[in-house]
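User: I've been trying to design a sequence by hand for this structure and keep getting stuck. Would you show me what you'd pick, starting by listing the structure so we're on the same page?

Assistant: Good idea, let's start from the same input. This is the structure you sent:
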């Protein structure tokens, strides 16, 4: 099987990310005003709790399945057997997960109706086989599906959600579209998989043991990505604080997707190259994606920090101004979190250095859990954000330590890093000055002006410094323009 080029896969993913980023630009301001911080805090709390069950029920099948499919992408018989073995195992795990969650929702949960609605989400997660398409590197299908579902989400919410009494409808729309989206994945399965059958055999135990290895870091991710929201709702005792944190994280998520896609798209290819013995090509791809990641992350983190109040005022509204400092802290976290995702997946996971990957995850997770206990009670959402930031910094240091033996320190810290930092420094100064001149503009015009002007200055500075990736991109664009004349 010949997969699409990495360039095409990234463009497919970038196209979907840009369109998907457009949806929250409309939805976040709309839902934050229609539902309010308290309702969004309830949704965040119950969704986070359901995510814990969903993650445990998946037991690492996403990463493990993607790597197994990638390693055997040239043999449809082995690929099909592995797929049905994993699906059969997941069916058993999901049945137990949903039963346990339903009992919890009925007898323990404070928000019973909302918790029961989240069962739709659990069923949707169980039907998610995107890992199979990622393994064969069919990102075009995933991108089209993602765009269609998000546009459907947008239309339904704008038509149905109008006030604080529509919280349950909002939850049903969000989780119902997830279910429909994942059901659609099964339609194109016949191109890649044959002989549908239920398989629990001698390989089941082997798969289960290896999945647990990939599941361990998922537990760590839960602690500093999901459980911090649960702990904020439980320890902090304020649904408004949960709302500040959730919506700030949503803004970060929009930006984060543009960079994290490097790690998700290249993981199957890097796995295939590494185990095929093509180490030179493996290293070249990683170096390129690392430069691209740093080139985008530095200005985005700086822009979020400097313009946090303007962004919240524009996107979320006045009621969410209490989350300005949360967004600033999460803006810094953006750089470390995205780098950790890319380095961890591209270097450690793709080469099956899972033990080292797990050490990083659990070190950060333990620190974050302890910091949450210490900070959330007094500092609420800001405390949760600080705990997450420090955890990501610890993980970054650990990943650098283990990864340098595989790819070398120069690949992890490219020589062009100083150019990104210098250009970002000039951009920050320009941003602060520009804010004074556009202060009389309406918030949305002010934000659009600042973003476009600062981005233009940043990339122009990189061109003047002859940064390698910028020269490659502009050269490629110029050749295409000349070819069309």
């Amino acid at each position: 099987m010949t997969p699409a080029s990495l360039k095409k896969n990234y463009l497919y993913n970038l196209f979907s990310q840009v369109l998907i980023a457009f949806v929250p630009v409309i939805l976040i301001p709309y839902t934050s005003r229609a539902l309010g911080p308290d309702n969004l805090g309830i949704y965040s709390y119950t969704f986070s709790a359901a995510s814990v069950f969903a993650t445990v029920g998946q037991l690492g099948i996403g990463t493990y399945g993607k790597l197994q499919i990638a390693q055997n992408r040239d043999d449809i018989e082995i690929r099909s057997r592995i797929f049905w073995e994993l699906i059969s195992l997941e069916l058993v795990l999901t049945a137990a997960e949903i039963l346990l969650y339903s009992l919890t929702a009925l007898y323990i949960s404070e928000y019973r109706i909302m918790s029961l609605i989240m069962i739709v989400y659990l069923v949707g997660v169980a039907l998610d086989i995107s890992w199979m398409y990622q393994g064969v590197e069919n990102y075009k299908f995933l991108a089209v599906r993602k765009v269609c579902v998000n546009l459907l989400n947008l239309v339904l919410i704008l038509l149905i959600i109008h006030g604080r009494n529509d919280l349950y409808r909002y939850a049903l729309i969000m989780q119902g579209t997830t279910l429909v989206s994942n059901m659609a994945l099964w339609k194109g399965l016949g191109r890649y998989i044959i002989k549908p059958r239920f398989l629990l055999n001698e390989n089941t135990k082997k798969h289960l043991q290896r999945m647990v290895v990939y599941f361990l870091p998922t537990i760590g991710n839960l602690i500093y990505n999901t459980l911090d929201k649960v702990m904020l709702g439980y320890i902090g005792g304020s649904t408004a604080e949960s709302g500040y944190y959730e919506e700030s994280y949503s803004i970060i998520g929009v930006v984060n997707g543009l960079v994290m896609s490097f790690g998700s798209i290249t993981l199957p290819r890097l796995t295939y190259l590494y185990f095929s013995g093509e180490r030179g090509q493996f290293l070249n791809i990683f170096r390129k994606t690392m430069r691209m990641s740093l080139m985008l992350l530095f200005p985005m983190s700086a822009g979020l920090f400097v313009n946090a109040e303007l962004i919240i005022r524009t996107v979320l509204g006045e009621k969410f101004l209490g989350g300005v400092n949360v967004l600033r802290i999460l803006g810094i976290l953006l750089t470390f979190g995205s780098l950790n995702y890319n380095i961890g997946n591209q270097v450690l996971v793709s080469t099956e250095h899972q033990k080292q990957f797990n050490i990083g995850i659990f070190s950060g997770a333990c620190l974050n859990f302890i910091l949450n206990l210490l900070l959330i009670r007094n500092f609420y959402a800001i405390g949760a954000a600080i705990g997450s930031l420090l955890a990501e910094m610890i993980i970054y240091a650990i990943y650098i330590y283990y990864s340098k033996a595989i790819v070398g320190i120069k690949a992890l810290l490219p020589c062009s890093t100083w150019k990104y930092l210098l250009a970002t420094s000039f951009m920050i100064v320009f941003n602060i000055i520009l804010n004074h001149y556009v202060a009389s503009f309406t918030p949305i015009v002010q934000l659009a002006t600042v973003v476009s002007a600062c981005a233009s200055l940043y990339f122009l500075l990189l061109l003047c410094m002859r940064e390698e990736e910028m020269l490659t991109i502009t050269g490629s664009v110029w050749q295409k323009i000349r070819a069309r004349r």
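That's my pick for every position. To get oriented when you compare it with your attempt: The longest helix spans residues 354-407. The mean pLDDT is 85.
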